[in-house]
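User: Hey, my collaborator sent me this sequence without any context and asked if I could get a structure. I don't really work with proteins. Can you help?
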Amino acid sequence: MIKTSLIILTRNEINGLKSQIRKIPFETVDECFAVDFSSTDGTIEFFRQNHIPVIRQTRPGRAQGFIEGAKKAQGEWLIFFSPDGNEDPSDIPELIDLLRSGYDLAIASRFLKQARNEEDDQFFKFRAWANRGFTYLSRLIWGGNITDSINGYRAIKKSVFNKLHLDASGYALEYQMTIRVLKKGYKIGEIPTIEGKRIGGKSGSEAVPTGLLFIYHLVKEIIIGQRF
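Assistant: No problem. I've predicted the 3D structure and written it out in structure-token form, which is a compact way to encode the shape of the chain:
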């Protein structure tokens, strides 16, 4: 029986992969594969050299990677991981443990005690405060006591994922996922994570457009209620 599926999301992440591959606890999962969108830097070849199957993502966008990865996965529990240096591979067993203990969604939080956000050392922490703001609004409207509604480093039961009918684009999908889990009354657990510095490549998230996308989906979720 395949219980856990580790889904590695990539687009030109060869530098991060080379740094992180030996740190990933493959022994804690039953299935592992990559979902890659049009990498041209050797990412796909590196996966193959390390005997990790690669699914070619059919359309661009992080949200599409989540959706295609979830559809392909055979496991009951899905762990989404990006090897860009931000996400600590050693958190994977703890995310699995949360699902094992009865949580439906497990999030690696950058804002719990003993956690660290990538921007903590920066004078202007616009993204960190924006992330906290969106999390506060989700708690205010739908309840719960989560601290990081946006971080994409997370694990979820596939049965729950399928009931959410996610349709957000880009990085807004993680926020939509959290909101709809709250709406459904499913259990969310968090672990503190240390967000590292990005290794090579370039982030696909631009602050202003991404923030506007979050606002759009926040308003949309308020309007549609349980109709999804």
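In plain terms: The first strand starts at residue 4 and ends at 10. You can pass these tokens on to your collaborator as they are.
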